[in-house]
Amino acid sequence: MIQKLCVAFRLMWGHRALTLEFFAAAAARAGLTALFILLIKTILPKAIDQGGPEGAGGEWVKMAGSATVIVLCWVGRSVADYFAKVMQTELGRRVEMRLRLNLVEHLLRLSLSFFDRTTKADILRAVNSDAGSLRMLVQETGGLIISSLQIINLLIFAFSMDPVLTVWGLVALPFVVLPLQRIGSAIYRHAEEGRFRGITITNLLFQVLSGIRVVKVFEGEEREAAACHRSAMELLKAAMAVVRRQSLASVLLDSLSGFGIFFVIILGGQGVSSGRIDISTFIAFLLALQILLGSTRQVLNVYSQIKIQSVAIDKIDGFLSVEPEIRDAGDALDLRLQPNTIRFENVSYSYDSDAVLENINFEVKAGQTIGIVGPSGVGKTTLLNLLPRFYDPTKGRVTINGTDIRKLKLKHLMRNLAIVTQEPFLFQVSIMENIRYGRPDATDQEVIEAAKAAGIHEDIITWNDGYNTVIGPTRADVSVGQKQRINIARAILKTAPILLLDEATSALDSKTEVRVQESLDMLMEKCTTFVVAHRLSTLRRADKILVLANGTVEAFAPHEELMTTSATYQQLWMAQERGDGSPPEHRA
Q: How many CB atoms lie within 10 A of CB 493?
């Protein structure tokens, strides 16, 4: 718990002025609470004792004056409490906002391998719910500060009135510590289970929404609903386990506190009877003890909440502690010259312990188009992903102009690359901004020229909002082919010297493929191009084709030569000519 409180204080201290104002308000609240009890102990008895039947009017004036002072003190306490709670909440919100932004920025810097092994649901949970848990931690810590200051003030006040009664009033509290530690461990364990169940439900929902067509065709609605129901019941079970243990902790504290109150009543009552303690002191002491025990109960609630939020805090710490596997070397170089030669030199890549690529060697000159083919799962996309350093080779190196790309600055490497993937991706912004994404400083006219070059301009101007149309990845009234040509326009506008095409036309039907391929041909004329293609017919005009088999290079030659020298290429070509190797066609 101490560690989590240190985290909260560090986050709060990032907003120093607000934190100091909060401490001031919390201290004022605690001080005014103690003053309220002191006034009841001192001025109220004097007002009651003074006066008599003959001076009833003066007595009421003194009583009214004393009551006014006490009420004003209580109102002042309420005002201080208002400011403390407002600033406590603002601190939590500001910490949550900053943490969420920091988390997103950190995630965007991480390497692709992190996203390969982490589910979207887990990431979204961290950015949304877990960041909210840090807000709760800060707010609960603020509550702990308020309660602790009040406890300290009231302890000083109680000891000043009667140290013996104070000790007896709190005699049972040390016996709460060990049971609370065990209850806290159980709360953490069940909160962790609840978080896992929550992510499971989110993952199930992602799965169902992504495969809704499959679910409906195979009549899987009831099965998926039943799976969600089971996970929801497990989540409910974990949540109720947390609630029961929180309530048990409160019962334990209240029950043991009752023993302290019992001793105070017995001993205090004897003191009043013997004249050792006056009745006003005894009443004030009981009031102070009651508020003190109430503040102790609030500390207990904070303890329970910190245990609950600790699960999310640990998860965020886990994310923030992940370092990018792909990063600039300390002496990283600028890529100042146009890429003239690209080489793969003895390149191997393994995922975990499984070898994907082994001993890859080939060279590409500027302006060449290189096709990459091979059976499914042979590592074609993996090889392509080594160029932008989505992954680094396990062995060997990839060079541009003779320099290992691991020695180049990432931002310089990326500036020289453009990519078009199999699944066209569009941001939830206008078409203009989607095309401009690779060159934010491009003019509207340059965007339009890129769209014309990609063969999508005529389609765009027929839409109601033209270039201001917001498509996004899920809009159904725009074809896959149209989305892909917008992606190609984005790549054209960037004018990068190296172009990566990863199955860019495989999701299209033949007619749409022809139109998209025409756009790609125009783009490829100005680039050094690497093409992963399922339809081998699109590679006939490639300068060379790299044939992968069993994770290594079987051949690297033009189409005509491969038809006589590469058994794998011949088999792939014959399979497609027979029609059993082509992917199913989709509507444009």
A: 22
